[in-house]
């Protein structure tokens, strides 16, 4: 079993095999494109919520040193194994919390977090901790989804129900499903300056993309921590989750299936004082 979140936090997704597999498809090229042009070759980078390390290794190919941090010891072990396969010597991984980073002040040039703040009950506190470990003038770079912007066709009522249900579950767990639209405000409250806010879209329209996305959620809604949260909080029944799962599989089989959503992105600077 993977380690649980720090006390008071609840990771909505959990660490089901299909979720870890989905995270392993992420790359720096797609998930950190807004950061890469500003990433110096000598930079020391912290990747918070690194997961299986596929983004982390991409950053390590472009930076001087990269450290990945995740709260799950099991996932960190997988990330180390991935980095070994990649043959990278400028990368390491640690287990820890975004609220209590195990490094001294001014230890990094860049702190990056992808799809992390949406799961935290106090994202501003985490961003302030990121600011603490940054060098003056260092960069924070964060990217998060906005679930309300998720659109799909053909329209399945059960999938529309899933989107509402996801918001209920995330909120009950202390998270913010629409975090992408709030990143700028949170970074301002955390004391970052020279803020730049952008957005990018994630799209699944090709047969492989539809199959992977649809099958992943077909499993997640009935056999993951999300399902346990949904039923345990009284938001849905097992029968309803089965209907949603079936709808995802039906959607993924549609030759004209379309799915897209917006990701918010923010880069900020740690001020001198």
What do these coordinates show?
The chain has helices at 17-23, 28-31, 54-60, 73-86, 123-132, 157-172, 183-189, 207-220, 225-232, 238-252, and strands spanning 44-48, 65-70, 91-95, 108-114, 134-153, 193-204, 258-269. The model is unreliable at 1-7 (pLDDT under 50). Helix 6 crosses helix 10 (238-252) and helix 8 (207-220) runs antiparallel to helix 10 (238-252). Strand 4 (108-114), helix 5 (123-132) and strand 5 form a beta-alpha-beta unit. It is 37% helix and 25% strand. It has 273 residues and is α/β, with parallel strands linked by helices.
Q: What form results from the Cα inertia axes?
A: globular
Terminal CA distance: 42 Å
Number of domains: 1
Number of helices: 10
Q: Output the helix-strand order.
A: HHEHEHEEHEHHEHHHE
What's the total number of strands?
Answer: 7
SS-derived structural category? alpha/beta
The second-level CATH architecture is 3-Layer(aba) Sandwich
Order of neighbouring strands in the sheet with most strands: 3-2-1-4-5-7-6
What characterizes the major β-sheet? 7 strands, mixed
Task: Give the low-pLDDT segments.
Answer: 1-7
The fraction of residues in strands falls at 15-25%
Helical percentage = 25-40%
């Amino acid at each position: 079993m993977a380690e649980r979140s720090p006390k008071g936090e609840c990771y909505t997704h959990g660490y089901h095999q299909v979720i870890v597999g989905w995270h392993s498809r992420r790359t720096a090229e797609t998930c950190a494109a807004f950061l890469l042009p500003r990433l110096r070759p000598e930079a020391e980078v912290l990747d918070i919520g690194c997961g299986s390390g596929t983004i982390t290794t991409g950053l390590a190919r472009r930076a001087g040193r990269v450290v990945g941090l995740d709260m799950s010891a099991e996932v960190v072990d997988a990330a180390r194994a991935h980095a070994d396969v990649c043959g990278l010597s400028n990368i390491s991984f640690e287990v820890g919390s975004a609220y209590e980073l195990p490094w001294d002040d001014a230890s990094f040039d860049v702190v990056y977090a992808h799809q992390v703040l949406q799961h935290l009950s106090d994202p501003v506190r985490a961003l302030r901790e990121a600011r603490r470990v940054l060098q003056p003038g260092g960069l924070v770079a964060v990217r998060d989804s906005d679930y309300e912007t998720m659109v799909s066709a053909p329209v399945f009522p059960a999938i529309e129900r899933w989107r509402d249900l996801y918001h209920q579950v995330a909120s009950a767990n202390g998270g913010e499903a629409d975090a992408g639209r709030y990143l700028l405000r949170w970074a301002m409250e955390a004391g970052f300056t020279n803020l730049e806010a952008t957005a990018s879209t994630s799209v699944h329209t090709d047969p492989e993309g539809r199959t992977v996305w649809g099958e992943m959620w077909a499993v997640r809604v009935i056999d993951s921590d999300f399902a346990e949260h949904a039923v345990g909080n009284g938001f849905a029944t097992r029968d309803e989750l089965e209907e949603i799962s079936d709808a995802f599989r039906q959607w993924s089989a549609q030759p004209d299936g379309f799915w897209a959503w917006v990701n918010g992105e923010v880069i900020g600077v740690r001020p001198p004082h």
